[in-house]
Target: DNA-binding transcriptional regulator, ArsR family
Amino acid sequence: MELDAVAKALKELGHPTRLTIFRRLVRAGHNGIAVGDVQDDLSIPGSTLSHHLSSLMSAGLITQRREGRVLYCVPQFEQLEAVLAFLQDECCVDECCVDESSAS
Model:
């Protein structure tokens, strides 16, 4: 995953309201959750919710699908996993190994 895409995702998740929304969507699972249910569950005004959902969509963290008159938000777990992998991929690569004989 490219640095700019990871930075964008982390920026959007760095806002407390967007992080709360995203956590709610993640809890809903792969089928997503109706926008109205998110609004009810989190007590967020519709216009505010729409703004935050748009930001999460622009970072590729969620998608939306319409079923009749109901709009669902679906978390993009692959994108989330890619962000986490980006952060973990080089974990401790510069850490030097401690020789057990010199550790005493």
